[in-house]
Amino acid sequence: xxxxxxxxxxxxxxxxxxxxxxxxxxxxxxxxxxxxxxxxxxxxxxxxxxxxxxxxxxxxxxxxxxxxxxxxxxxxxxxxxxxxxxxxxxxxxxxxxxxxxxxxxxxxxxxxxxxxxxxxxxxxxxxxxxxxxxxxxxxxxxxxxxxxxxxxxxxxxxxxxxxxxxxxxxxxxxxxxxxxxxxxxxxxxxxxxxxxxxxxxxxxxxxxxxxxxxxxxxxxxxxxxxxxxxxxxxxxxxxxxxxxxxxxxxxxxxxxxxxxxxxxxxxxxxxxxxxxxxxxxxxxxxxxxxxxxxxxxxxxxxxxxxxxxxxxxxxxxxxxxxxxxxxxxxxxxxxxxxxxxxxxxxxxxxxxxxxxxxxxxxxxxxxxxxxxxxxxxxxxxxxxxxxxxxxxx
Length: 393
Ligand SMILES: *[C@@H]1O[C@H](CO)[C@@H](O)[C@H](O)[C@H]1NC(C)=O
Ligand SMILES: *[C@@H]1O[C@H](CO)[C@@H](O)[C@H](O)[C@H]1NC(C)=O
Ligand SMILES: *[C@@H]1O[C@H](CO)[C@@H](O)[C@H](O)[C@H]1NC(C)=O
Known about the structure:
Largest sheet: 6 strands, mixed
Order of helices and strands: HEHEEEEHEHEHHHEHEHHEHEEHEHEHH
Number of strands: 14
Bound molecules: 2-acetamido-2-deoxy-beta-D-glucopyranose
CATH superfamily: Phosphatidylinositol (PI) phosphodiesterase
CATH architecture: Alpha-Beta Barrel
Structural class: alpha/beta
Helix content: 25-40%
Number of domains: 1
């Protein structure tokens, strides 16, 4: 009995050490008020780990807890969608309606706020963010979007403002970038009015500048407070280009979705002539990954040349969205998220990935870095030289 007991004790100690080994990274204490100069810098040697709506695979999207978890798990950037309340505050929220990811249905006091508005060419009915003041939005609680994900955090967290989101990134004890989207700008500018004729985009850039986000990609300022501004609307990106030199990413929707502002088709905005035009305003594109490698019957087909053509225009490519669940993984990946990351990073050669599971992407990248062979390093060096030559061009 005694020896088997101690054997059991040894086994659990071994399991404990193994667990710590597989985690392989310190849990960062948060938040921290350390000066950015002494913080661990942003990694810039491998594709960016962009925490899509925070670590929303685990915790309800765009909440403080989801962002803190993403930072703890190794995100390079925390990503968010910016919308506006009725009284003009900028908030972090994805949908124009509150129905799918909050407890609005339980709030009898708001029962008369249901409306139908036209959004990007279709009529949508629900409780719209733009019909609620910030105080009212703060009285709601966020819940998990997908029924197959952890529901235990439903009702625990509130909607946060853009300023609160910025504070989370600035408070992290290593340098963590932000990746905010100017969401539905046409709709927001129709429904929310600011004093002195200011537009949604002006308020958005104003807040970034107020908190010190400025400077071209890889400049000293940028490395201290990294940011990518993203939008599906070319006119928003062009409009803000005179207000900030922060790097911008042009998002590209599905094949059949025209741009919300200029009504241009997928084929038009991915043409060489459009890439040549938009590169004056942006440092990269953010396409839906299934438009780069279109699946048929849930199996990958031949990749398009979009990534190569974007790189030829010196544009980065940050596709969205990587998700661990079997229902999202194409059959070619054998239900293994590492296999999907390996394909996109090594075969397709993307420069950043929007993921719902920051922890998985981080562990993949740590594992890949540790197991890189000489051949891979030589390949990496060649890739680097090729990129230096193309940027010198
Ligand atoms: C939305 O509804 C309004 C009012 O019923 C209608 O006039 C409009 O054509 C509809 N728009 C779309 C895109 O269906
Ligand atoms: C930006 O500023 C330049 C120089 O002042 C001007 O020529 C250009 O039209 C402006 N562009 C936009 C989009 O406002
Ligand atoms: C957008 O473009 C399509 C295709 O050219 C056209 O059929 C449609 O009427 C346009 N919509 C708007 C709102 O201009």
